[in-house]
Each structure stands twice: as structure tokens, then as C-alpha cells.
Design goal:
Elements (H helix, E strand, L loop, with lengths): L1 E3 L9 H18 L6 E8 L2 E8 L6 H4 L19 H11 L3 E5 L6 E7 L5
């Protein structure tokens, strides 16, 4: 995993942010394929902080893209997937007043969340 971004402060509990990023990285491990790499980056955007978790793996098919945040939707049931990880991630981000989405990219998958920012002291 590669981390990249400026020092920013977000209005979300650190443990909630760690949990969401962990769920997104688990998703990479389960779905991106062997040898896939992941990047976590962040930037200021729309008065808040935009955090992206991107990989260079297999990506999400157009047919599944609209359903990835649905509870119990999984393409990995045979491998033990429950279809709850992304639904939980969405719930945690929304509980903090943010939003999360799957962004279309040329290769792999890119999940982008936005949370309110906190002014630096």
C-alpha cells in the first residue's frame, strides 16, 4: 500500500476513518487479484477532505458497479465474502456526515470518500 497526500484534518473519529480505510483495503485483498497494488491518497476538496483508495486489479464490472454498496451483495461468496464490508464502510462514512462512491477509472477500482474538514489551528 502506498500512502500519498498533504497533512489535513478531517471531522471524523480516527477509529472510524481507520475502519473504513481498512474495509476498503480488505476489499482490494479479496477482489483485486494476486499481485494487485493499492494506493491511499487524500486532498482538500469542496471544503473537506477527499480520500481515495485505488488499486490496479481487476476492477468492478459495469453490471456490479451499481450494487457494490448493497448489503449482502458479493461476488466472493465461495471465498467467504459476506457482502457487508462496503455497506459498513458506507454507513460509517455517512454517519460522519460524508459520502462514498465508486469512481470509474481506466484500470482497477477506486473508492472515494469525502468528509468535512477541520480548520487548522
Amino acid at each position: 500500500v502506498t500512502l500519498d497526500g498533504p497533512a489535513l484534518r478531517a471531522a471524523v473519529a480516527p477509529e472510524a476513518l481507520r475502519a473504513v480505510i481498512g474495509l476498503l483495503l480488505d476489499n482490494v485483498r479479496q477482489h483485486a487479484g494476486a499481485g494487485a497494488r493499492a494506493w491511499v491518497s487524500w486532498r482538500e476538496a469542496d471544503g473537506g477532505v477527499e480520500i481515495a483508495v485505488r488499486d490496479d486489479g481487476r476492477g468492478v464490472s459495469p453490471g456490479n458497479a451499481a450494487r457494490v454498496f448493497d448489503r449482502f451483495f458479493t461476488t466472493a461468496r465461495d471465498a467467504g465474502g459476506t457482502g457487508l464490508g462496503l455497506a459498513i464502510a458506507r454507513g460509517r462514512v455517512e454517519a460522519a456526515g460524508g459520502r462514498i462512491a465508486l469512481r470509474e477509472v481506466e484500470r482497477g477500482a477506486c473508492f472515494v470518500m469525502w468528509v468535512r474538514g477541520v480548520a487548522s489551528p
